[in-house]
Amino acid sequence: MLIKVFGAAVQGIDATLITIEVNSSKGCMFYLVGLPDSAVRESHQRIISALQVNGYRMPTCNLVINMAPADIRKEGSAYDLPLAIGILGANEIIQTDKLDRYLLMGELSLDGTLQPIKGALPIAIKARELGFEGIIVPKQNAREAAVVNRLKVYGAGNLKEVIEFFNGQCELEPTIVNTREEFYARQSTFDFDFADVKGQENVKRALEVAAAGGHNILLIGAPGSGKSMLAKRLPSILPPLSLGESLETTKIHSVAGKLGKDGGLISIRPFRSPHHSISSIAMTGGGSFPQPGEISLAHNGVLFLDELPEFSRNVLEVLRQPLEDRKITISRIKCNVEYPASFMLVASMNPCPCGYYNHPTKACVCSPGQVQKYLNRISGPLLDRIDIQIEVTPVPFEKISDARPGEPSVVIRQRVMHARKLQEERYADVPGVYCNAQMNSKLLATYARPDENGLQLLKNAMNRLNLSARAYDRILKVARTIADLDNSPQIHSSHLAEAIGYRNLDREDWAG
User: Fold this and answer.
1) What is the domain extent for residue 447?
2) Which of 45, 243, 429, 442 has the fewest other C-beta atoms within 10 Å?
């Protein structure tokens, strides 16, 4: 008897329908074709054990299983469940009248328990697109898949429940999630708040400007001055995720298996902070079985690189193209996988090897050559993509001991959201541009042209402070954001003056 069962393969952050054709006939051989990898071929032993433990017997017949389309490599153990159901259906152990209405995925333990899978969300989205009535996944993935509306999502605990469901002996309870209610309820829940920060008003202002314009930012300061503490609070002032952004972000984390058993829609912008020992593959994504890297897991959020000069040169250089294109393409012999990577880069570093260059009270023991060599670990092209560079100085005792709370994140966030709204309206007709940081030269000439006084100020600053030529466009972009925060259609001298103050490393004499 020939029957068909349906599963899915995840490629990038999207799923492709896989049709599992099972044909049983007289004989005793078992054939599994359709480009399966080792984990899929090993499913034979897991299925045999799962059936025996649950009171069923592996059919003794000739079984030919084809996983179509045969030119797509089938990877992982998530095909265990559809393969097992297909084998039972082909031998009339279960009823087959409902098989074409459901998409099945799940890994089997030897006792028949269903183990969680990766990519349940994009699989559920594909099932709805193709008109399936429902999807059956392990219980741990049910909430994740139930984010998709107009689709019945059943979470099963073991193989026996699925068999009895198709035989009409029991009913599986559909998982229902009020996506919008949960999404909006968790949008303002943060572990860190700027109200806890003592002093550092200039750095808080720089982070506000960076959030308002989507600018990359570099924090430079001595150990213990609060660089990491400030960076961790940045997501609390970024504009909330839209439902579309949340769905795309959740798909990436679903494919990477990062959602957990209670995974629903991600409602807060991601904050990723990889260790400086990370490899270039782990940063960008890839591997034998391509997976999203840190830059994709930070999509629509923040990528924080602490101790920036300690990262490998190769790791830092691979960031250059994603920072411009806001996507990363993983190329392999048989496939190309594209992951989105639209993130805000936040980095921190010491000013020198000992960490106390320009410190107000502690002396630096590094020579000017050592300081310059340390700074040169960050290449010019990468530094060129960082709009704001701000020094973080230690907080004096008077500020640390002040019991009064600082300005809360919710107040700063309102100003940031107002500035972002102005930018959305300004670039509504420009595809691919959503904030000031993404402006090209043509848009700069149109929207960031300073007045005569501003041009003179900019000219004097570049001459007196020995600013590099690459700083010119960055200063204009940041000044445009500062003007938006002031609700000013025109860039004034005060806006340019503040933006010039955010280009510390462009001063040729900064390192002595």
Assistant:
1) 439-512
2) 429
